[in-house]
From TrEMBL:
<dbReference type="InterPro" id="IPR001087">
    <property type="entry name" value="GDSL"/>
</dbReference>
<keyword id="KW-0732">Signal</keyword>
<feature type="signal peptide">
    <location>
        <begin position="1"/>
        <end position="22"/>
    </location>
</feature>
<protein>
    <submittedName>
        <fullName>Uncharacterized protein</fullName>
    </submittedName>
</protein>
<dbReference type="InterPro" id="IPR036514">
    <property type="entry name" value="SGNH_hydro_sf"/>
</dbReference>
<keyword id="KW-0442">Lipid degradation</keyword>
<keyword id="KW-0443">Lipid metabolism</keyword>
<dbReference type="InterPro" id="IPR051058">
    <property type="entry name" value="GDSL_Est/Lipase"/>
</dbReference>
<comment type="similarity">
    <text>Belongs to the 'GDSL' lipolytic enzyme family.</text>
</comment>
<dbReference type="InterPro" id="IPR035669">
    <property type="entry name" value="SGNH_plant_lipase-like"/>
</dbReference>
<dbReference type="Pfam" id="PF00657">
    <property type="entry name" value="Lipase_GDSL"/>
</dbReference>
<dbReference type="GO" id="GO:0016042">
    <property type="term" value="P:lipid catabolic process"/>
</dbReference>
<dbReference type="GO" id="GO:0016788">
    <property type="term" value="F:hydrolase activity, acting on ester bonds"/>
</dbReference>
<keyword id="KW-0378">Hydrolase</keyword>
């Protein structure tokens, strides 16, 4: 039975890759077609499509071999923290966008291009403003919403107030992939959290995060966002970086990091239920990235991977999990066989499996409806 499942999955992945690589961009009309819709992408390095290229920051991915499998750039780095497409890229393609959402900070994010969506994601960013200080610069979620407020006015100018409102409420999906850095590059950092962990219990820190996120989502709602998908925090205790610095075995994960993620995720679920009730006309969909990624990590061989612990590109320790991916990194033989591209981020092969579940999966991983249904609302 397992073999049949894997075959089916592989067949799907192969047909999906062939389908998207051959037709994507190929016959896209230049003029904006409103039926295609837009995605406005908020978050961290899991979805950054190049914003950090324009920031003086220590968190950057616009260097080889990042992007080596990204067809639209001919394998050149774009600022994405993976070898190919991010989950947001894949979901955007599947929902019919003819172009990837442009990075807000890129010179291309002007004129009609923004009607296909804008990407505000930033490596190192978090819900909390202080998150990612270690990188010197990054766009936190508060700033990302400020930027959307600017985009919002540009859309008014392009479409007129009434059409703009309709476009945002009906044709646009707002995805938010954030929270991991609030733990990895804030609360769990021994030195830089200066006191956060001493003065704040996990409960209080998670409480703070949820309150900030509630404000951020409510601000987006006031700016006419209605269709939301919010990812919970993945099993951050299982990434090669955490496994390496904590000197774990192949199939172990760091308990504290995963415990914090689970705690936050429980509160996030309640928050979204609350917002679904309190904000008329809005739909908040929860993407259960934690369970989905843990399933892929636990049963990696069923999904065609040979390892879920070792980074494909990176150096240091047992799992190549200390030094980020760059020109001097060693790289694995077969990129499609690693769940993790680098010490922190999934490979495109893993992103394809995750995106497929978010698009078409059931309530175990995406609730109360999947993204295909959210789009059709
Ligand atoms: C911006 O547009 C130029 C010209 O159309 C293109 O070559 C370049 O790849 C675009 N950059 C991004 C980040 O999309
Ligand atoms: C958040 O940080 C930005 C700089 O990254 C700063 O401009 C802004 O004032 C800060 N916001 C709050 C609420 O502290
Ligand atoms: C958007 O920006 C305007 C100023 O241009 C401000 O008055 C308004 O409060 C902002 N809205 C949100 C939701 O941040």
């Amino acid at each position: 039975m397992a073999v049949v499942k894997v075959r089916k999955l592989l067949a799907w992945v192969i047909s999906f890759v062939m389908m998207t690589s051959s037709s994507y961009f190929g016959d896209a009309a230049d003029d904006h077609n409103e039926a295609l819709g837009a995605s406005f992408v908020f978050g961290d390095s899991l979805v950054d499509a190049g914003n950090n290229n324009y920031l003086p920051t220590l968190s950057k991915a616009n260097m080889r071999p990042n992007g080596i499998d990204f067809k639209a750039s001919g394998g050149n780095p774009t600022g994405r923290y993976t070898n190919g497409r991010t989950i947001a890229d894949i979901v955007g393609e599947e929902l019919g966008q003819p172009h990837y959402a442009v990075p807000y900070l890129s010179p291309n994010s002007t004129g009609k291009a923004i009607l296909y969506g804008v990407n505000y994601g930033s490596g190192g960013g978090g819900v909390m403003n202080a998150t990612g200080r270690i990188f010197v610069n990054r766009l936190g979620m508060d700033v990302q919403v400020d930027y959307f407020n600017i985009t919002r006015k540009q859309i008014d100018k392009l479409l007129g107030a009434s059409k703009a409102r309709d476009f945002l409420m009906k044709e646009s999906i707002f995805s938010i992939t954030i929270g991991a850095n609030d733990f990895l590059n804030n609360y769990l950092l021994p030195v830089l959290s200066v006191g956060a962990r001493i003065t704040e219990s996990p409960d209080a820190f998670v409480d703070d995060m949820i309150n900030h996120l509630r404000d951020q989502l409510t601000r987006l709602y006031r700016l006419d966002a209605r269709k939301f998908v919010i990812g919970n925090v993945g099993p951050i205790g299982c990434i090669p970086y955490q496994k390496t610095i904590n000197q774990l075995n192949e199939n172990e994960c760091v308990e504290l990091a995963n415990k914090l993620a689970i705690q936050y995720n429980g509160r996030l679920k309640d928050l979204l239920a609350q917002l679904n009730e309190n904000l008329p006309g809005a739909t908040f969909v929860l993407a259960n990235v934690y369970d989905l990624v843990l399933e892929v990590i636990t049963n990696y061989d069923k999904y065609g991977f040979t390892t879920a612990s070792r980074a494909c590109c990176g150096n240091g320790g047992q799992f190549a999990g200390i030094i980020p991916c760059g020109p001097t990194s060693s790289m694995c033989q077969d990129r499609s066989k690693h769940v993790f591209w680098d010490p922190y981020h999934p490979s495109e092969a893993a992103n394809l499996i995750i995106a497929k579940q978010l698009l078409d999966g059931d309530r175990k991983y995406i609730s109360p409806m999947n993204l295909r249904r959210l789009r059709a609302l």
